[in-house]
Amino acid sequence: MKLQLFRNATLKLDYAGRTILIDPYLAPKHSLPSFTGRSPNPMVELPVGIDEILEGVELVVVSHLHQDHFDAVAKERVPKHLPLFCQPGDKGKIREAGFTDVTPLTDRAEWNGITLTRRDGSHGLGPVVELMGPVIGFSLEAEGEPSVYWAGDTVLYPPVEKTIRDTKPDIVVTHSCGARWNGDLIVMDADQTVAVCESFGGTVVATHMEALDHATVTRDDLRRAAEARGVPASKLLIPADGETLELRRP
Predict the structure, then answer these.
(1) Helix (H) or strand (E) holding 194
(2) What is the DSSP letter of 100?
(3) How far is Cα 99 from Cα 104, in angstroms, rounded to an integer?
(4) What is the mean pLDDT of residues 35-42?
(5) CA nearest 74: which of 169, 119, 157, 8?
(6) Which pLDDT does position 250 carry in this prediction?
(7) C-beta neighbour count of 77 within 10 angstroms
């Protein structure tokens, strides 16, 4: 499989001969409000044009409706006829944006030889979860491809640990910027990401970094934390915006 990170959580996967776009956040640099007063968002431009991002896309996955995962530009530019999986409860709002083939991922779905399985996530812990709202992660499986667990906008908490332990994925994709809301951690930080690396035998791909002004962890921060705990660079991949990784089954 190939995984290309564009910015934040926006990924393009070439998987089992199909092309999947995840959480499109396509707004121009500094076109959206700040979360903390530090900078308008997004803090960086897309590394390639929107047409290139959308080229060949056959399926879209939207994990939740926060603007940094499905923004107004994405609602305008992503072709409305493409099949789109979302979390339960978001179908109506996505259809209101004009999308015609929207399926809530309630448990497990089959699409062109690919199995998608919904996974639990928690966008923080404690009272902040009510402010953030529900989120999902998902697993991908297909014959001849590495198994993937895309954890999504979640902190490391028991259901995530259980998913890794029970499914033993080849690849875990984390959101690792340590974003905070009113002081509360709402996605994984460096310590939690390194803990994921230490918890299973596969590869971690850390994303969702250096694009938003409520983030607290940079790529360099994460790499230093991993090195301090003895995690090899081959175990923890931290792609730059625009970078493509080729990932194979062990």
Answers:
(1) helix 190-199
(2) S
(3) 13
(4) 97
(5) 8
(6) 85
(7) 14
| Cα–Cα distance measured from residue 142 to residue 171, given in angstroms and rounded to the nearest whole number | 13
Q: Cα(72)–Cα(189) distance, rounded to whole angstroms? A: 27
Neighbouring C-beta atoms of residue 143, cutoff 10 Å: 8
pLDDT of residue 225: 98
Residue 54 reports pLDDT greater than 90: yes
Nearest one of 122, 115, 191 to 151, comparing CA atoms? 122
Residue type at position 117: T
- CA distance linking residue 68 with residue 181, whole number of Å: 14
DSSP string computed for 186-240? -S--HHHHHHHHHHSSSEEEEES-SSSTT----HHHHHHHHHHTT--TTTEE-PP
List pLDDT tens digits, range 107-137.
Answer: 999 999 999 999 999 999 999 999 999 999 9
d(CA 120, CA 230): 29
Between the two ends of the chain, the Cα-to-Cα distance in Å is 12
Distance of CA 83 to the CA centre of its chain: 18
| Strands 2-7 vs 136-141: parallel, antiparallel or unpaired | unpaired
CA distance 171 to 116: 14
CA distance 236 to 220: 12
Residue 12 to residues 29, 137, 160, 225, Cα–Cα distance (Å):
20, 16, 23, 27
List of domains in the chain: 2-240 (3.60.15.10)
Q: Which of 10, 1, 79 is nearest to 242 (CA)?
A: 10
Backbone angles phi, psi at 56, to 5 degrees: 80, 0
